[in-house]
């Protein structure tokens, strides 16, 4: 009589337990690194847009009326996507400071994302 070779149920359960243990260890680190990447991308996007706003104001003598105007005048290639909301429309624009002699609608930009950063600050206050 010929016997079929294969894995026993116990061997399969042990392998599945090892895979589940490894996934349980790796998953939290993966999601934490994804969150850190989004935070870093947000900081970078804000820095680039604020730099473009400053250069626009220095070149034109006024602030732009919208973020799209920065794109039209080629200070940005495109309005970046807010990495936390996944939208280019969620940016909150702020008027120029009162002590600025320059006119225009957009003097600063902030994220429209709700929630807190890992350091405890609100994303909308960056």
From TrEMBL:
Residue spans crossing the bilayer: 12-31
InterPro entries: Bac_GSPG_pilin, N_methyl_site, Pilin-like, T2SS_protein-GspG_C
Signal peptide limits: none
Domain Type II secretion system protein GspG C-terminal: 30-73
SUPFAM superfamilies assigned to the protein according to its UniProt record, in alphabetical order: Pili subunits (SSF54523)
Record's protein name: Prepilin-type N-terminal cleavage/methylation domain-containing protein
PROSITE patterns, alphabetized: PROKAR_NTER_METHYL
Keywords, comma-separated and alphabetical: Membrane, Methylation, Transmembrane, Transmembrane helix
Pfam families (alphabetical): N_methyl, T2SSG
Keyword Transmembrane helix on entry: yes
């Amino acid at each position: 009589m010929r016997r079929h070779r294969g894995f026993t149920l116990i061997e399969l359960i042990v392998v599945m337990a090892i895979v589940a243990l490894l996934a349980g260890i790796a998953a939290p680190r993966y999601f934490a690194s994804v969150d850190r990447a989004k935070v870093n991308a947000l900081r970078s996007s804000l820095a680039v847009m604020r730099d473009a706003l400053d250069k626009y104001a220095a070149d034109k003598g006024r602030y732009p009326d919208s973020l799209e105007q920065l794109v039209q005048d080629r200070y940005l290639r495109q309005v970046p996507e807010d990495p936390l909301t996944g939208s280019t429309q969620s940016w909150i624009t702020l008027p120029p400071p009162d002590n600025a002699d320059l006119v225009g609608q957009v003097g600063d930009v902030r994220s429209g994302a709700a929630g807190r950063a890992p350091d405890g600050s609100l994303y909308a206050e960056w």
